[in-house]
Recover the amino acids of this structure.
């Protein structure tokens, strides 16, 4: 039998979720979109019509969950209303998959983890960047110790999107709404524990965001590894990819990744000179089994976890570690001090 899903939040982000279900046969055959909910019921109706869905539409989430006997809640609402939406799903017996960020405070994140445990349901987060083939390839490459011991990873994220809506009005839009992806990918690829951060948050001249469109951060990771982040959402002229541009440094060499298809790795070939000789090394491609597809891979892994009775890779109990990096960076920027990272 298909699992019945209700999707809450019918803005632009919801289309990515529905395309993932529609285009992946493994999801299309396992999920029925039974209901669409939005504070603007016209938006729900329009989304159902656009995707040719026979789903019920409405603006009352508890009533929709009850009427559809939903098994799953897809939470695509703005972060400011995430807590009551997730709680409603859990209270109606649903497993819940949320957009990022998981919560707007660490306290709320802890509360949602506890609520999911009490309800004996899963609550996970769509960290779709973790399910990008490049990220998986780099994690495997670093684990192979081809670069020796990892000593540092550094990334640049520079784009200039004009979203309109809540992102341009919210506090900490870059750190809270976007950097969570980058921080989670850094933690995943490095395989290290974030310990502390020093951060600076600014709103550059010409920014169309209300606050915090740019930030820089230096993170201390376990095993003496440093992670640095430089980012802006109002930087026109020389954009990086949405996955950022990365440099990984090890005791034997370095890897540069453009966030897309370019991987350049070189290691020390001979020593004893002022600058050591270097030789290129290949970053192995992902196998067919390891190839991933963003949202579709996250949803598929979530379904597999339900079926197998385990926590999914992006479960709230793991995702809170990346969220803690975000809030520690925000606190550091506000206090102009080094902040230790605690879940």
């Amino acid at each position: 039998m298909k699992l019945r899903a209700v999707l809450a939040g019918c803005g632009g982000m919801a289309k990515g979720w529905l395309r993932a279900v529609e285009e992946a046969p493994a999801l299309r055959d396992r999920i029925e979109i039974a209901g669409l909910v939005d504070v603007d019921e016209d938006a729900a109706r329009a989304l159902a019509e656009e995707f040719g869905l026979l789903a019920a539409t409405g603006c009352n989430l508890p009533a929709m969950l009850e009427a559809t006997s939903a098994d799953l809640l897809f939470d695509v609402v703005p972060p400011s209303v995430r807590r009551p939406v997730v709680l409603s799903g859990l209270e109606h017996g649903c497993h819940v998959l949320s957009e990022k960020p998981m919560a707007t405070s660490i306290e709320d994140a802890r509360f949602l983890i506890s609520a999911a445990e009490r309800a004996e349901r899963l609550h996970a987060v769509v960290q779709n960047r973790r399910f990008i083939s490049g990220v998986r390839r780099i994690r495997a490459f670093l684990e192979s110790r081809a670069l020796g011991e990892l000593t540092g990873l550094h990334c640049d994220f520079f784009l200039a999107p004009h979203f309109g809506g809540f992102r341009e009005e919210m506090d900490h839009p870059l750190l809270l709404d976007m950097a969570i992806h980058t921080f989670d990918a850094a933690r995943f690829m490095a395989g290290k524990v974030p310990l502390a951060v020093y951060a600076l948050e600014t709103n550059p001249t010409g920014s169309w965001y209300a606050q915090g469109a740019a930030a820089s951060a230096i993170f201390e990771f376990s095993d003496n590894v440093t992670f640095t982040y430089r980012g802006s959402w109002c930087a026109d002229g020389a954009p990086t990819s949405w996955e950022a541009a990365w440099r990984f440094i090890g005791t034997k060499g370095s890897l540069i990744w453009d966030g897309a298809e370019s991987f350049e790795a070189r290691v020390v070939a001979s020593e004893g000179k002022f600058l050591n000789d270097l030789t290129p090394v290949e970053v192995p491609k992902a196998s067919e089994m390891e190839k991933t597809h963003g949202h579709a891979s996250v949803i598929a892994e979530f379904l597999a976890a339900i079926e197998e009775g385990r926590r999914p890779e992006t479960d709230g109990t793991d995702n809170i570690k990346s969220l803690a990096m975000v809030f520690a960076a925000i606190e550091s920027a506000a206090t102009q001090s080094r902040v230790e990272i605690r879940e």
Q: What stands out?
A: The mean pLDDT is 94. The first helix runs from residue 12 to 23.
